[in-house]
Each structure stands twice: as structure tokens, then as C-alpha cells.
Amino acid sequence: AQPADAQTELRFGHANGEGEIAAQLFEDFAASVEERTDGELTIRIFPNEQLGTENELVQQAKAGGVDISAPSMPSASLLVPQLEMPSAPFLWDSWEEAHAMILGDAMQPAFDELAEDHGLIPLTKVWYWGWRNFTFSDTEVREPADMAGLNVRVPEQAVWVAMVESFGASPTPVSFADVYSALQQGVVDGQENPIPTIYNRRFYEVQDYIVMSRHMLQNNMIVMNKARFDSLSNEHQRVLLEEAAKYSAMNTAIQQRLEQEMLDEIEAEGGTTIITDPDRGAFAQALNDADAYTTMAERWGQENFQRLRDAIEELRSR
Amino acid sequence: MALLLLTFVALLTIGLPIAFAMLGSAMLAIWIDAFPMTVFAQRVSSGVQSFPLLAVPLFILAGNLMNQSGMSERMFAFARALIGHVRGGLAQVNVVASVFMSGISGSSLADCAATTRVFVPEMEKAGYTRSFSVALTASSATLAPIIPPSILLIIYAWVANISIGDFFIAGIIPGLLIGAVLLGVTALMARARNFPVEGSFSRSTLRRTFGQAGWALLLPVLIVGGFRAGIFTATEVAAVAVAYSLLVGVLIYRTLDWRGIGAALLSTARDTASILLLVAAASPFAWVLAMNNAPQVMLGFITSISDHPVVVLLLLNVMLLVLGTFMETLAVIIILVPILIPLLNMMDISLVHFGILMIVNLLVGQLTPPLGVLMFVSCSIARVRMGAFLREVWPFLLGLLAALLVITLVPALTLWLPATLR
Amino acid sequence: MSSLLLAVLRRVDDAIALVENVLISALCAVLAILLFGNVALRYLFRSPVTWIEEVVVAAFVWMIFIGVSACVRSHQHLRIDVVPRLLSGPAKGILGLLGLLCMVVIVAAMGKFGYDYAVFVSGNLTPILGISAAWLYIGLPLGMAFTAVHLLRQFFDEGPSRVLESVLEREG
Ligand code: NA
Ligand code: NA
């Protein structure tokens, strides 16, 4: 790396709204970087899809239109398909497990491909967004059999469709803005989203059950254009990585605490039963029985997904 | 930002098509700022690469199929049977028929062309001057994008990220209000100018014409019902509307043949291309503005004048009226809405309410030079000079402005119906 | 330009126009059929067909950018005509030439940048069908190439000051 100019400005475009925790933490991250580099390195933030959607911003970071972006792993998988693997349904037992695996050797080839073929490096591989959980209107769902025949709103994407069909339910597309009224009017019998979404969008008001299925992990990353990163001084690079790691950890702690607080508040309001112990094993088994993982892994590369699953097995057997 | 705007105005002035003027100025700004040009190409392509926008060609197609099967004539005949017998009856018929048409047609341009061809000759035959007839037809064509279905409403909802179903329903009352205002202005003029009275009311004619027009009038019911049942996404509602229009044209009216369907498809593809090119062109333009902190500049500028929501809304009205006179409606929506959202959120102004009044504002500008698309279309079809048009259109413009003021000051007009129908 | 070359240009331009019109009408029909089919299938089999979204978005993008060219040929793009209307004689010709020049530069640059972008994303595969994303984006440069031919033909046949006129100015 070469010595940087006296002052360097990085452009950070992301898709999160200004009210969201992530947006606030990104601001704090920028302020912290500026402070630690005595104003030599500044980060200008473009929130709220101002410069494009999540998917488009990754491409812009690759091209150098922005320097930094914070895509979800499925978004980044448009460049490197196997980056979607950590979002596979019922893959993880716990966040600790997922965290270790995303940082570990089994996922490293995906990040190598991202750097070599697309010139993007992670400032942090982890930006916790939460587990997605099912909610239902009238049906107490504890195992896949309970879901049979229900209309469930999911994003109309291959992984979701394959998953819901494995459980015998019908995936039904409803635009995100219309989910609340679709649930209210009984057009769909349920939906799935992370707890903050269920809470902020008030889906729980029109749902009887929240099933803590933790079926998919939603994880984002902060990625940076590699050429731009390499042009910074070692000192600035170090500050960026350290601050990204610091705010990533802070984000995980805050989000997990908030998740619990939101659940407590939903429960206190009454009218919604939170099922904390659905039979996750049975759901995973249903996916295996339907051969859904094989279908999904066609996109990721069967050998890549096998590598990840082997590593998970190894971790669990330790 | 100055470079972007100056280049844009220069290209407009020398007479480039609006979309290409936006593309050229955005391209230059991105290039001068040394951004990769792949970003420009990405903004152009991804600006239109969106599933919700597919509702646009489908609603245009539904309207074109209805037009091909002779919708304007049927609507006009039904409206005539309904209120043709009052003083200035044919002028009132024009407005009422436009209200009906707007429940089928998604764009004011298509609507304006079709109604000018049918309504103006009828009115001329009955003794109205051609310039008055054209002015009235163009003014009532503003209803098409306010009453659902509407291309403008789809695109605003897409940009502002709000529910298209709710936004469609929000347009109904303001649309009817504007219709009522136009009827009122026409009634006043009928008395002042002693417009002709013709024919008398006939129940059997009403029944017969309703039997003809009723099938088409079911379409808006189907659309709103589809949204309310929540069964469909906007794209799916639009697809069902196409199938319904095809069915009515082929099986019930029996006026739609292969030739008509082909013509509807071709003109839909062309209309869609010219509309979506504006969307595509506005996207890199908006990107350059965002890169140059336009949202913060706008927020600072407006709040430095006032931080009272009503004053802000009135200020925005004035700004939009001015912009609407020389800018393309769609382009203004795509460029301005992202810039205004932080301000609107801060002021706690509903995006639904603002959207409707923004669209009404911009439509008023379509009736005036330098860029008055409705004026151009109706004047060129009926061969009326712009000066004669302007002499006749001002009472309607005043009426539209009064309606706009009411819609601005009474948010319930837009917000009540979507909240109630939930 | 020699009359033979001009005759060839007219032939080519007419052929392109025919291809464009057939193609965009067909794409429009495909859109409507697939999207309605998807609704119908959902209610019959209660299961969405996920590839439809990818196909219709691609058809949509192609319809738009090929349609843009068709609109250039039929003078369907709107412009503000205040200044061109005020001028007459040589001044009008010079302004028309200037506008046409800008237009050609913009069209050529769009074609070039559009092509570069298609190459840039050609390694990315679409999530469901797994085909190269370049297919989605190549419609833009192709539409711009067609546009260039239309502009050239209009330049020779209609004269520089009429190329950018909109259909409304011509009727009025
Ligand atoms: Na309408
Ligand atoms: Na105007």
C-alpha cells in the first residue's frame, strides 16, 4: 500500500432506511473512522437506496461507483453464488455456530472468489440481521405437517419456494408493502421475516402465532472495492478493519438484545402466542426428504455446499 | 450538480427529446466526475428492470384493447343518455365520459387522443366552438392518471415504496372531486354563454347504452376489488385486466379482431418504450443528484423558509406547478421523490397524500406551454392553435387549481378511503 | 451520398423497422400471456412458476430498448419545441444539425457503455435460469445501433432540422 493523500473520502452506499439501527451504526462507524484518522479518512454515506438497491450497489462497489456497500449474502451471491449458502434453511443450530463458520475456512473460497473475480473484499463478513421466523394466522405450527396446505407469503425466490413447498405449503407472492393487509384479510395464512420486521411492520397484530423456527439466517457484510482499499495506507486499512469489526460486534449485541425486547413487548401486548420450541429437526428432515438442499445447491455448487456441511458436522462433533 | 442542470437545460433548449437530454447531461456529469461509465449503464438498465413496473405495459394494453373495441364511443353514448339533456349537456357529457374512461385508461395521453377524436367532432356538430371543445377535452383528460388504473400512480408508488393498492384507492376521491369541479366550471360557463340544450332524458336509451358501457365500467371495479381482496399484486391485477379487456372486446362487443389486437400490441409496446425510456433516463440523473447531496440541499433550503407542514406543502405546490409547465411528469416524479422523501418524513407528511397532490400539480402543467403534453395532443389531433386553446382553457385551469388547494389542505380526501377499505 | 448507397440505407432501415415492430409486438404479447398464465397457474396448481419473473423482466427490458428505437423512427419521443419553432431558414438548419449531432453522440455513447456493461456482468448468472446476465443487457446497445440507422436515414430523407421533431409537431 502507498501513503494516502492528506485527505481521502470514501463513498458508502447502503439500502437501509435512516430510522434503522444499521443505518445509525454505519454513521457511527464513519464518525469513528474519521476520528481515529484525524480526519484524513472520511466516509460519506448514502443511505436508503439513494444510489440504488442492495443488488445494484454491490455492482457499483465492484465498478468503483461507490467504495463501500453493505449487501446481504444473497445479494452478494449475484456475483458469487456460493455466498448464499449461509442463508440455506435450517442449516445452523445457533448463531455462534453460524458466526464461526462464516469466518472459517469452509467459506473462505467464496470470499477468495469475491476478491479475485470481482475485486471486492469484506471489511466485515458479519453484519447480523437476525433469524427469519414464521408467523401464522390461526394455525399452531410446531412441525412441517402443521403447515400442509397453508398459503405462506415468501419472497418469490428459488430457495424460499423450494423450502415452503418441502413443507407442503403453497408459496404465495405478495409485495412487501401489502403483507399486513394480506394477513389481515386472510389472503395468506402466514409469512416469514426477522423479528424486527415482524415488530416494526406490526405483523404480530394480525397474527396469532410466532414460531421461532429460526429457519434462515439473514446476514449482511460490509464490502469494499479492493483497488480502493489497496490504495490506502496500512494505517488507514487497519483502522477500517478494526472499526468494522468493532461495529459489527456492537451491532450483533444490540440487535439480539432488541430482538428479545421486541418479543417481550409482543408477548406483553397479548393476543400472540410465541412458540419457542418448534421441532426444527423435523423441518430439516422434511427438507432432506424433499431433496431440497440438492435443488438449492445446484446454484451454489454441490461440492461447495458439501464442504460447508462437512465443516458444520466436524464442528458439532468436536 | 450545476453542470448537470445546465447541460440538461441546454440540450432541452436546442430541441433534443427530453429523455435523451436527461441521458446526455447525466452521462456528461458522471464522466466529468471520473466515475466508471458502467455505473451510468447500470442506472439506465436497472432503472427499468423491475417487476412492479410490468404493470405499466399491462394497464396500457388493457386500455388500448378497450379503445380498439370502441370504448370512447360507448362511454360517450352512455354519458349522453345520463346527462345530455341539461344546459350545455354535451360539454357535461364530455366530463362524465372522461370520468368513466379514466377507470379504464391508465395514461392521460392515450385517453386524450381517443377522446379528442370522438368527443370534439360530436361537440362541434352540436354548435360548440372547436377550441372550447378541445380545451374541455384536454382538461378532463387529466382525470385518467388520478383515477385508477394509472401509470403515474404505479410509478410514484414504486419510487416512494408504498403500497400500489392503497395508492390506487387514494386517487379515487380526488379524481371524482376534480371531475365535479370541471362539471361545475362547465355549468357556470353554460349559463354565461348560453350553451345549447338538446334532446331529452330517455330511460330506455339509458338502459341500452348502459348495457353497452357497463361491461367496460366493470373493469375498475375488478381492479379495485382485486387489490382489496389482496389476491393480486399490481402486476397480476393488470394481467387480469388485460384478459378481461380481451374477453369483452372479442366475445361481448365482437369488435376486436386479430388486426385490432396486433395494433393494440404495437402501440402498447411503443407507448411503454417512450414512457419507460424516461424512467430509465431519470435514473442516472437522480444518481448524480444524490451523489451531490441534493436531498440535504433540498431539506436545508425548504426548512430555511418554513418548518410548518402546511406552508411546506404550499411551497412544494408552487415549485411543482412551475416544474410541471416545462418538465415531463414522469421524469419529475422519479427525480424529485427520492430527494423529497427525507423532508416529507421529517415533516410527517404522508407519502400517499403528497403523491396525489404532486400528480395533480404536474398534470396542471400538461395543459400549458412550454411543455403541455395534453395541450399538444388534443390541439394537434383537432388542429387548434395554441393561442385559441389557451383563451379557452383558463377557467378550467382555475378550477383545477382550486381543487388542488382543497386536496392539499384536506389530507382526509386522499387518506380516508384507503384507511376505510382496509 | 450516392443514390445507390442511399437506396441500400433505405432498404436496411425499412428492414430494421419491420423487425423492431414485429419483435416488440411479440414481446408485448409474451409479457401479457406469461403474466396472466402465472396468475391462472397459481390458482390451478397453487404454486408459482419462478422462472416466469426472470423471463418477463428480460422480455420487458428488450421491449423497452428496441421500442425506443422504434419510437425514434416514428418520431414518438417528446421534446420542447419552443426554440426550434421560433427559428427559420439557415438558423433552423444549424440548430437542427447541432441537436442531431448531440443526439448521435448520446446514442453512440449509450451503445458503447451499454455494451461495456453487458460484458462487465457477463460472468454473473441469473439466479433461476442460470444464463449469463449479459443477455439481459445486450438489448440496450442493440437498440442504440438500430436507432443510429434510423437517424442516418432521417438525416438524408428528411433533412437535419426535422429528425428530432416529434409526431405532435408534425401533425399540428
Ligand atoms: Na385511470
Ligand atoms: Na406545461
Description:
Chain B: It comes from Aquibaculum arenosum. Chain B: It is a multi-pass membrane protein. The complex is a heterotrimer of chains A (318), B (422) and C (172). By secondary structure, chain A is an alpha/beta fold. Chain A is built from 14 helices and nine strands. Chain A has helices spanning 21-36, 54-63, 73-76, 95-103, 108-118, 144-147, 158-166, 179-184, 195-200, 226-230, 234-269, 280-289, 292-300, 302-317, and strands at 8-13, 41-46, 68-69, 120-136, 151-153, 170-172, 190-194, 209-225, 273-275. Chain A starts with 7 loop residues before the first strand and ends with a helix. The relative contact order of chain B is 0.15. In chain B, helix 3 packs across helix 14, helix 4 (55-68) packs antiparallel against helix 14 and helix 6 packs antiparallel against helix 11. Chain B has one domain (49-421). By secondary structure, chain C is an all-alpha fold. Chain C has one domain. Helices cover 77% and strands 0% of the residues of chain C. Chain C is built from seven helices and no strands. Chain C has helices spanning 3-45, 50-73, 82-86, 89-120, 134-137, 139-158, 167-171. The model of chain C has no long low-confidence stretch (mean pLDDT 92). The chains are: A alpha/beta (318), B mainly alpha (422), C mainly alpha (172). The A-C interface holds A 59, 63, 77-79, 81, 117, 151, 156-158, 161, 165, 170-173, 299 and C 42, 46-48, 50, 53, 120-121, 123-125, 127-128, 130. One sodium ion (NA) binds next to loops of chain B.
List the helices and strands and how they pair.
The complex is a heterotrimer of chains A (318), B (422) and C (172).
Chain A: E1 8-13, H1 21-36, E2 41-46, H2 54-63, E3 68-69, H3 73-76, H4 95-103, H5 108-118, E4 120-136, H6 144-147, E5 151-153, H7 158-166, E6 170-172, H8 179-184, E7 190-194, H9 195-200, E8 209-225, H10 226-230, H11 234-269, E9 273-275, H12 280-289, H13 292-300, H14 302-317
Parallel strand pairs in A: 1-2, 1-3, 5-6, 5-7, 8-9
Antiparallel strand pairs in A: 3-8, 4-7, 4-8
Helix pairs in contact in A: 1-11, 13-14
Chain B: H1 2-13, H2 18-32, H3 37-46, H4 55-68, H5 71-83, H6 89-102, H7 108-125, H8 130-140, H9 151-160, H10 164-170, H11 172-193, H12 203-229, H13 234-252, H14 258-291, H15 294-305, H16 309-326, H17 329-347, H18 351-365, H19 373-382, H20 386-409, H21 412-421
Helix pairs in contact in B: 1-2, 2-3, 2-14, 3-14, 4-13, 4-14, 5-6, 5-12, 6-7, 6-8, 6-11, 7-8, 7-19, 8-19, 8-20, 9-17, 9-18, 10-21, 11-20, 12-13, 14-17, 15-17, 16-18, 17-18, 18-20
Chain C: H1 3-45, H2 50-73, H3 82-86, H4 89-120, H5 134-137, H6 139-158, H7 167-171
The complex binds sodium ion (2 copies).
